[in-house]
Amino acid sequence: MNFLQKVAKKIKTIKGRAANPRYTLAANGIFINENERKIANLHNIHAGKRAFIIGNGPSLNKVDLTLLKNEYTFGVNAIYTNYEKMGFYPTYYVVEDYLVAEDRANEINAYHESKAKFFGNYLRYCLVPDDTTLVLNFRLDYREYENFPNFSENLLKEVWVGGTVSYVCMQIAYYMGFSEVYLVGFDHNYDIPKDAKINKEIITSTSHDVNHFNAAYFGEGKRWHDPRVDRMEQSYHRAKAVYEKNGRFIKNATVGGKLEVFERVQYESLFV
Fold first, then answer.
1. Per the structure, how many domains does the chain have?
2. Which of 129, 188, 236, 238 could form a disulfide with 261 if both were Cys (CB 3.0 to 4.6 A apart)?
3. Which domain covers residue 177, as residue numbers?
């Protein structure tokens, strides 16, 4: 039986396949291209270690982010614009939102400083993969299905959305084997300015951004989605349950904010 025959046979025997058969094959050990091989190499690469997921809330300005320079970190969206205060770029960089991808395409395509960049396969029309990019099979299912949202323990097969890119980071961190995940900059509180232009779930700013670490983050002309905090909390509860079921944990090291799903820990105490 040649390789193509083996692939065809595998397709027929795999049940509950993902939307893209390529990723389903990868989840079962058959790699069509280098992208899937690279994803496979990340499995449990950081087993037993700790990671920090850096949010983009204004509370980032209240902590010494340089303490994270030698830690494993996940950054998202326009986190690279905070380099001067951080003094480093995140180890891993993730984009989920197509509005961010479109509005900052030139910046994101020119960004090569993280060890790996992750984005969904649906963003290829504006984001161009480079040597550090890993394209994931995002399952864009926002329906209010039972036990929303699903949580993927296998990046080779799929990654589920949950209304916040941080939920994607939690799934990636889980796949990499991190046993301790700490959140910083998760203010979990959003104000929609009165002068913003609203078209259904898409908001376009006409003035400074008050919800992130700098005023230009989603400043004038930038588009963003209606922040569904309730949906985010559903995602966080699911991630918390999966981590704890497997002897791991996520804790919140944010200064202030309104996220109470996770146990809180004082940021500075993590570096004593």
1. 1
2. 236
3. 19-190+227-271
Q: What is the CATH number of the domain that holds 94?
A: 3.90.1480
Tell me: the pLDDT tens digits for 74-100?
999 999 999 999 999 999 999 999 999
| Band (244; pLDDT cuts 50, 70, 90) | very high
CA 34 to chain centre: 22
Q: Which of 32, 83, 92, 37 is nearest to 60 (CA)?
A: 83
Q: Is 262 within the bounds of a domain?
A: yes
The answer to the question of residue 209 being in a domain is no
β-strands 92-95, 72-76 pairing: parallel
Count of residues making up the chain = 272
Give the separation between CA 146 and CA 234, rounded to whole angstroms: 11
**How many percent of the chain have pLDDT more than 70?**
93
Q: Going edge to edge, which strands form the sheet with 133-136? A: 133-136, 116-120, 92-95, 72-76, 50-54, 180-184, 249-252
C-alpha distances out from residue 245 to 18, 44, 231, 250, 259, Å: 24, 17, 21, 12, 21
Average pLDDT for 158-162: 96
CB neighbours of 271 closer than 8 A, spacing ≥ 6? 67
User: Which tokens go with 190?
Assistant: 């959003």
In Å, what is the CA distance from 201 to each residue of 108, 122, 195?
A: 24, 19, 16
